[in-house]
Amino acid sequence: MAQVHRGGQPYPAGHPARLTPHEVRTRDFAVCRRGVDPVGVREFQARIADELASLNETVRLLSQENDRIKRALRDWQTMHARECSSAPEQGHNSGHW
């Protein structure tokens, strides 16, 4: 996996630490003469945006995997139904499956 960079600095092991709801709720920004430090705010917003982008990508990949598994299950069910219907009747509950 490629290193992930933001602001020219790589994250340790290529992955950012997960942002927690608690951190978002309790984050304090340094007070400047005219309010909060805009650089700190922008850095925090960039981190939130990165986290959301990562989560959106994860949701997309999981959705694709979910679709793949559903298709595989449907294919298996179709194959199973064909095998069971083509087997000769030997009595109740004595089929292949």
If you had to describe this structure to a student in words, what would you say it looks like?
- The chain has 97 residues and is mostly helical.
- The chain is built from 2 helices and 4 strands, in the order E-E-H-E-E-H.
- A two-stranded antiparallel sheet has the order 1-2. A two-stranded antiparallel ribbon has the order 3-4.
- Strand 3 and strand 4 form a beta hairpin.
- The radius of gyration is 26 Å and the shape is rod-shaped.
- The N terminus is likely disordered.
How would you summarize what this structure contains?
It contains two helices and four strands. The protein has helices spanning 21-26, 38-86, and strands at 5-6, 9-10, 31-32, 35-36.
Question: What labels would you give this structure?
Answer:
2 helices, disordered N terminus, 4 strands, rod-shaped, single chain, two-stranded antiparallel sheet
Produce the secondary structure layout.
Elements: E1 5-6, E2 9-10, H1 21-26, E3 31-32, E4 35-36, H2 38-86
Antiparallel strand pairs: 1-2, 3-4
